[in-house]
């Protein structure tokens, strides 16, 4: 009875595809943790990962998402049963977007990444995650898909895998077609559950979280740009702390929260400030370049 009850709770939280992935990932980590070289490299990686530069943006994003989730719950748009989906979104989508956009230099990158992520999320939520195969089939399929996916990727960089690439793509195409057919059949036979409020909320949750995360990422991009600009000024105007602060103050007043202007100031215009000898020089340079900032 105890095992049956425990199994029921697991299947209530995770679908068969997630359980299968969890089993294989757990086995992989158990195996790889037996390798001493990996443990040594992992400890170094964790040491760099826990540095403030990486950890603080992650923690701030998690706090931001927690506030958003609280607001959604107050509006009746989030349920405790969606906690698992929220955590998975943070790990596999939210953090990926944060680090992907943190290195971008144009404001329009946000629109492009947002559009691509929403399309991908809708596909995975509706086509891949709404219905899953029986557990045994999912356990068999997962390693096959991982292997053929790796072959297609390696074929792009090494010609010796090109002969296997055609077969790998065929397997992926057949499995993808099979999943879509399986989902369509289930939707037709179970359409009442598909159009239910809870199912729609589950499908829309990652989309909502993705859209709402954009203001946070935008502010993070502005902070990174200003921080980079500050470091450059400190290096090249190191003889005058007063000039450093004055230049930063004038640039913040000029650019405000406009990412495009900050990036332009961070570009070639910032180098002109490095030769400034007085506050008047900084005012003149910023005034002369105001049309391009």
Please characterize this protein's 3D structure.
By secondary structure, the chain is mainly α. It is built from 14 helices and no strands. The protein has helices spanning 2-13, 16-32, 36-49, 52-74, 83-102, 108-128, 135-157, 162-189, 191-194, 197-236, 241-255, 259-266, 268-273, 279-288. Helix 7 (135-157) packs antiparallel against helix 8 (162-189). The longest helix has 40 residues, at 197-236.
Note the run of SSEs as H and E. HHHHHHHHHHHHHH
Q: Report the span from N to C terminus.
A: 70 Å
**How would the global form be characterised?**
elongated
The helix content is: over 70%
Kindly state the mean pLDDT as a whole number? 80
What is the percentage of strand-forming residues? under 5%
Radius of gyration: 25 Å
Q: Outline the biggest β-sheet.
A: none
For the secondary structure, the number of strands is: 0
Query: If helices are DSSP runs of H or I spanning 4 or more residues, what is the number of helices?
Result: 14
Number of domains: 2
What class would the helix/strand composition place it in? mainly alpha
The parts where pLDDT drops under 50 for at least 5 residues are 1-8
């Amino acid at each position: 009875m105890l095992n049956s009850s425990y199994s029921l709770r697991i299947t209530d939280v995770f679908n068969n595809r997630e359980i299968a992935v969890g089993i294989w990932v757990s086995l992989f980590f158990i195996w790889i943790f037996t390798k001493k070289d990996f443990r040594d490299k992992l400890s170094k990686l964790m040491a760099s990962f826990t540095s403030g530069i990486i950890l603080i943006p992650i923690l701030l994003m998690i706090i931001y998402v927690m506030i958003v989730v609280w607001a959604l719950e107050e509006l009746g748009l989030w349920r405790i049963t969606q906690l698992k989906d929220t955590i998975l979104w943070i790990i596999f989508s939210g953090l990926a977007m944060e680090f992907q956009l943190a290195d971008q230099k144009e404001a329009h990158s946000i629109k492009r990444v947002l559009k691509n992520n929403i399309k991908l999320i809708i596909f995975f939520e509706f086509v891949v995650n709404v219905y899953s195969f029986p557990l045994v089939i999912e356990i068999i399929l997962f390693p096959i898909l991982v292997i053929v996916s790796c072959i297609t990727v390696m074929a792009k960089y090494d010609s010796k895998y090109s002969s296997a690439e055609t077969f790998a793509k065929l397997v992926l195409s057949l499995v993808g077609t099979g999943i879509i057919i399986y989902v369509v059949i289930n939707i037709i036979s179970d359409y009442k559950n598909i159009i239910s409020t809870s199912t729609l909320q589950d499908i829309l949750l990652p989309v909502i979280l993705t859209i709402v995360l954009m203001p946070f990422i935008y502010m993070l991009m502005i902070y990174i740009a200003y921080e980079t600009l500050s470091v450059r000024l400190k290096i090249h105007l190191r003889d005058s702390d007063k000039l450093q602060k004055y230049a930063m103050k004038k640039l913040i007043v000029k650019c405000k929260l406009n990412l495009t202007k900050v990036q332009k100031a961070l570009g070639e215009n910032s180098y002109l400030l490095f030769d400034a000898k007085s506050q008047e020089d900084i005012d003149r340079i910023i005034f002369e370049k105001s049309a391009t900032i």
